[in-house]
Amino acid sequence: MKYTLLSIALLCATACLAQVSLEACQRQAQHNFPLIKRRALYAQSTALTIANLKKGWLPQVQATAQATMQNRVAELPSELNGMLTAMGRDLRGLAKEQYRVGVDVNQMLWDGGRIGAQRQVALLQQQANEAQTDVSLYQVRQRVNDLYFGILLIDERLQLNTDLQTLLLSNENKLAALQKQGVALQSDVDQLRAERLTAMQTTSELQHARQALCQMLALFCNVDRIDSIEKPTSTDNQETAEDVRPELKVIDLQLRLVASQQRALHSSLLPTLSIFGQAYYGYPGFDMFKDMNSRSPSFNAIAGVRLAWSIGNLYTHRNNMQRLKVSLAEIENARELFLFNNRLETIKQQAAIESKRQILNSDNEIVVLRQNVRRAAEAKLANGIIDTNSLLQEITRENNAKINRSTHEVEMLQGIYNLKYVKGEPTIPKQATP
Asked: 127-177 pLDDT, tens per residue?
């Protein structure tokens, strides 16, 4: 009850959270993605399989009924039959029409390890399926990253657009004052106003795009809304894909599964030991001399120990083992291919991050220079040296420089988190196996 209340409280707190981090979004998205329900289904299926395997140790009962017509039956030698006839005894021999209704009971004592091996195969199959689910859940992380950094980029654009409108309004007011003094034209004021209205339209477009991205991210996280997000920090990670990528866990479990299947194949070659009992009512019974003289059915029973060794599995054992060896080679090849592609992607992401980092160093200087040029243009316009078009060009260039800087910064952050995704940094806690 305590854990239920705690979960409800956390859910409500998350639903009303105004600002969220990237890691929190990744956790929420993984915990609420519909695919995670497969874990419980895999566990349920495995439990049923193991329960069925355990029933192999229960007594196996078989009811039988048969009726036969035989061309020959057991009978006494003619000399002995003649002697008995001379003594007044006439044995007719067994009837050719025979019938019985019975029950066979077999209790396994040792199965050569078959049930235990099959149980291990079922458990490893469940773990491999769950690990494959983890791979799909891990891919959700990249989708969340794309949405999150898309929102972050729009936030940067919105802030810059707000600054642009403020700057345009300031210059518009200055020109309006000059126009009243007769040193500026109304068309100059209108031109700045038109640019400001265009910037307002851009703000509206960005807000609608942001709203759509926030709704999609909220759907992933299973929350009512996401109002704002935190800007991630550019931290480096030293872990490698060989340690934490879920794809490699799948490969390891697949290798263990094939090894378990090999053990199951070996166990199928071993004999089985069991005790058995048979009972039937019919004709003839075990007392054949009595049944030669009488056609009456009787009750008969037998019990004992049986050692059975089937050689039928030997016919396909070698091919089955070769098939499993091929599977092992394919899985190892999949590991090599994954690591190769992962290293390529790591190099690509590292190069992209370094490129953005170097570009950012010059972006800051470009923005400062563009600001200086724009301020000089404002002074020139006030003194009548340049026209409004020249000022708007400098304002646009400064704004573009700021947009480039913010875009490069967000792209660098996204590249860092893409690299974390490639290398498999475990920002999301691992799920316990149900």
From this structure: 999 999 999 999 999 999 999 999 999 999 999 999 999 999 999 898 898
Q: Is residue 414 part of a domain?
A: no
pLDDT tens-digit series, residues 353-368: 999 999 999 999 999 9
Number of neighbouring beta carbons within 10 Å of residue 199: 20
Cα–Cα distance between 80 and 414 in angstroms, integer?
Answer: 104
Distance CA 203, CA 209 (A): 10
Query: Residue 162 is encoded by which pair of tokens?
Result: 């707000």
How many CA atoms does the CB half-sphere of 146 hold within 13 Å?
Answer: 7
Q: Are 411 and 354 in contact (CB under 8 A)?
A: no
Q: Is residue 371 part of a domain?
A: no
Higher pLDDT, 88 or 367: 367
Q: Which residues pair with 298 in a beta bridge?
A: 282
Rounded to an integer, what distance in angstroms lies between the CA atom of residue 375 and that of residue 74?
Answer: 124
The pair of three-digit structure tokens given for residue 333, joined into one six-digit string: 């090849």
Positive or negative, the Cα torsion across 93, 96, 100, 104? Answer: positive
Q: What are the DSSP calls for 87-140, one per residue?
A: TT-------SEEEEEEEEEEEEEE-TTHHHHHHHHHHHHHHHHHHHHHHHHHHH
Strand order in the sheet with 272-283: 60-69, 97-110, 272-283, 298-308
Task: Give the CATH number for residue 110.
Answer: 1.20.1600.10
Pairwise CA distance, residues 108 & 190, whole Å: 97
pTM given for the model:
0.80
| Residue range(s) defining the domain that contains residue 23 | 18-69+96-316
Spatial separation of the C-alpha atoms in residues 159 and 165, rounded to whole Å: 10
Cβ atoms of 416 and 234 within 8 Å: the answer is: yes
